[in-house]
Amino acid sequence: MLTDQEVKDLEVQVKQNRRDIVRMVHHAGSGHPGGSLSAIEALTLLYVKRMRVRVEEPSWPDRDMFFLSKGHCTPAYYTAMASRGYFPREELMTFRDMHTRLQGHPSNAHLPGVDISSGSLGQGLSVCNGAALAARIDGRDARFYCMIGDGEAQEGQIWEASMTAGSRGLDNVCAILDKNDIQLDDYVDNVKSLGDVCAKWRAFGWHVVEVDGHSLRDLDAAFDEAEATKGRPTMIISHTTKGKGVSYMENTAKFHGMAPTDDELETALEELR
């Protein structure tokens, strides 16, 4: 359970990460701010407080692992990694530059600490399952986290992987559905409705927890519940707002994959002051 001071410190870090997200995308002139801003609480909490890793030894065999299945949301991913100390925060401003380690989609060939090169939607949970099964065979006590987008959950491979995790009872797997209700160019329900996602994942044998994805306390309690759940994987349905924190980016598909202008950047930074 987070203390009051830990919550305050994390809230400061989340606000800083939001500012860095919009700066990075503006600097690059491209990127995905909307889904990064919706996911940043969960990612910051995982990297700063929850995950057992060794920054100085990124390939430590007994580490917890994270798989960003919605691989386009690297601005949030990289700011969370920087918050844990994987690389200097100043390096964030090389995002999408030529020869940078901070590619538009994560690459484990370039950046130590990245556990999967991703971006082709639908594949992350399958890789997460494989790592979790390997840890079980090896007798390693590690946890495996995977973040999925709700638009991404329209992919069939997500449900194949969900069936695998449930049937294998992978209780070392915890997936987070960043449910901001908007995908590339419209609301998820208008493109292909997911229906009752909680009932769906329960039907596949998962323990399901619904939370306010912008509440650090709710998320922390959900991660505690996931660790305490034995015999089945956990899906955290994280209800979020696309573009959270920047008024003109909230609840719109426009900034799914578009950079702010100079004036829009200044407005965003003022709102995130």
> What string, H for helix and E for strand, traces the elements in order?
HHEHHEHEHHEHEH
Low-confidence stretches: none
Let me know the number of strands.
5
The CATH C-level class name: Alpha Beta
User: What general outline do the C-alpha atoms trace?
Assistant: globular
Q: Tell me what portion of residues adopts beta-strand conformation.
A: 5-15%
GO molecular function, one term: magnesium ion binding
Family: Belongs to the transketolase family.
Protein name: Transketolase
Keywords: Thiamine pyrophosphate
Annotation keywords:
273 residues, Rossmann fold, five-stranded parallel beta sheet, 9 helices, globular
In short:
The protein is of the alpha/beta class and 273 residues long. Helices cover 43% and strands 11% of the residues.
Please specify the SSE layout and strand pairing.
Blueprint: H1 4-28, H2 33-50, E1 65-68, H3 74-84, H4 124-138, E2 144-149, H5 156-168, E3 173-179, H6 188-192, H7 197-203, E4 207-212, H8 216-228, E5 234-239, H9 262-271
Parallel strand pairs: 1-2, 2-3, 3-5, 4-5
Helix pairs in contact: 1-2, 1-3, 1-9, 2-3, 2-8, 4-5
Domain Transketolase N-terminal: 18-268
Keywords: Thiamine pyrophosphate
GO molecular function: magnesium ion binding
